[in-house]
């Protein structure tokens, strides 16, 4: 949710969209980012992707770190584009994700970065 809303806010902003709508999208992205960071609920891959064409898709995805990294990238890009004061926080989230930052690997549906 954070990733998609951040991207929507950035694109809408770049196209000269309604500032109130951009603010709503960005607020939803920030809220989702903060909720994800503050949860202690364990990720259950069987619940998220229980089988073919259900939930997350046909692929087993038991790792959410790549999703968090992708969301951090979108949050950083949008914060930068909007001149948000938390741009440094998101930049740090991107650049300290050593497993993904500057890494090149095979891309498949289970690894979104």
Describe the secondary-structure layout.
Elements lengths: L1 H13 L4 H20 L6 H4 L16 H18 L4 H9 L18
Helicity range of the residues?
A: 55-70%
Q: Which quaternary structure do these chains form? A: single chain
> Gap between N and C termini, in Å?
16 Å
Number of helices: 5
Mean pLDDT: 82
Radius of gyration: 15 Å
**Shape, per Cα inertia axes:** globular
Low-confidence stretches: none
Order of helices and strands: HHHHH
Which percent band covers the strand fraction? under 5%
Give the beta-strand count.
0
Structural class: mainly alpha
Biggest sheet character: none
Descriptive key words:
about 110 residues, mainly alpha, 5 helices
Structure description:
- Helix 1 (2-14) packs parallel to helix 4 (65-82), helix 2 runs antiparallel to helix 4 (65-82) and helix 4 (65-82) packs antiparallel against helix 5 (87-95).
- It is built from 5 helices and no strands.
- With 113 residues, the protein is mainly α.
């Amino acid at each position: 949710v954070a990733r998609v809303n951040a991207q929507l806010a950035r694109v809408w902003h770049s196209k000269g969209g309604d500032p109130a709508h951009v603010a709503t999208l960005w607020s939803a992205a920030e809220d989702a980012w903060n909720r994800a960071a503050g949860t202690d609920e364990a990720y259950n891959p069987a619940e998220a992707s229980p089988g073919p064409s259900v939930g997350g898709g046909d692929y087993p995805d038991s790792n959410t770190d790549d999703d968090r990294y992708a969301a951090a990238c979108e949050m950083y890009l949008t914060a930068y584009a909007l001149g948000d004061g938390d741009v440094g926080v998101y930049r740090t989230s991107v650049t300290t994700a050593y497993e993904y930052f500057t890494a090149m690997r095979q891309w498949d549906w289970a690894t979104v970065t």
